Amino acid sequence: MEHDYVLQIENLETKFAIGRKTVNAVNDVSIKLRRGTTLGVVGESGCGKSVTALSVMQLLPKAATIRNGKILYSPKPGEVKDLLEFGPNSKEIRRIRGKDISMIFQDPLSSLDPVYTIGSQILEILNAHENLDKKEARKRIVELLGKLGIPSPEDRYKSYPFEFSGGMKQRVMIAIGMICNPNILIADEPTTALDVTIQAQILALIKCMQKEYGTSVMLITHNMGIVAEACDDVAVMYMGRVVEFGALQSIFDKPMHPYTQALLRSVPVLGMGKDKELESIQGTTPDASIVFAGCEFEPRCPHACAKCKEAHPPVLVFEDGHEVRCWLYEEGKAI
Ligand SMILES: Nc1ncnc2c1ncn2[C@@H]1O[C@H](COP(=O)(O)OP(=O)(O)OP(=O)(O)O)[C@@H](O)[C@H]1O
Ligand SMILES: [Mg+2]
């Protein structure tokens, strides 16, 4: 293995059975997270980002099933286990969840329980995984709350969620995610509900924690600006598939997939001239229950050719590790 990966998702397929319909939420997804780095998973609403993350955690809704794939987790170099070999309720997964791999959920503001204090909610996670006496546990939580920029953490330990602002609640969610010093932190749109200044603070906090504890981060977002600021590698998803994957620099300097190119044109990115008009991507994402014979992006693609309708493009891997799923490159036509 060339790189040291802490997580490798291989050919993951997760589907929902809704009545007689099958929703192909995650289709043959392979994603690699290098140890100690941040991977951005980006794409429009409904492309399968959250379902991919929930598949890793095995916290899927009842209607969902993982049909295929591997979730290879490497707690340390040279040691690998496929998490899908353990069931979602197995002792192994329960031990790994929260301790080795933790997740900040997309809707954190409603995931805090209104009837318990902030401190007791963090304590519950800590107690589930570590055997600390009460005083020690409390000290560690207060310390973390302080590091996360919560003023007077001693007092705030005893506060209830309603006594916190949105940004502060978000910090508490990060504390819940970080309290056991996980190897992997999956942050699902951790800043979407927050204003821009708080967004920047939260991202800086995650980075800071990463530096201190060597945490590997999978950062889910639909915002390319956030990707540019916070990530080392990027996976671009479209309709349940990873259409492009590569190092940040490579994706931004040389976006290959027409969808990535469109994404980069449609969002303001730091450093890009303010006067440049932002384009929106033409068309809308089709219904996820539609099965395509060819590339899912073909109906919206300005470069589509006959082949794109006929069959799924294979993954093309370039020397620098940049990967793309697009017939144009297979045919040798650079765009
Ligand atoms: N509980 C559910 N029941 C049925 N279908 C679902 C459910 N959750 C997700 N899906 C479907 O799975 C697909 C992927 O959804 P997912 O939530 O992973 O998207 P996402 O990329 O996280 O989008 P967003 O940016 O809006 O959070 C979508 O087609 C969605 O409609
Ligand atoms: Mg989501």
List keywords for this structure.
335 residues, alpha/beta, Rossmann fold, eight-stranded mixed β-sheet, four-stranded antiparallel β-sheet, 13 helices, 33% helix, globular, binds adenosine-5'-triphosphate, binds magnesium ion
Quick description:
By secondary structure, this protein is an alpha/beta fold. The chain has helices at 49-57, 91-96, 108-111, 118-129, 134-147, 153-156, 166-178, 196-213, 224-230, 248-253, 258-266, 306-310, 327-330, and strands at residues 5-18, 21-34, 38-42, 64-73, 81-82, 101-104, 184-188, 216-221, 233-238, 241-247, 316-317, 323-324. It contains 13 helices and twelve strands.
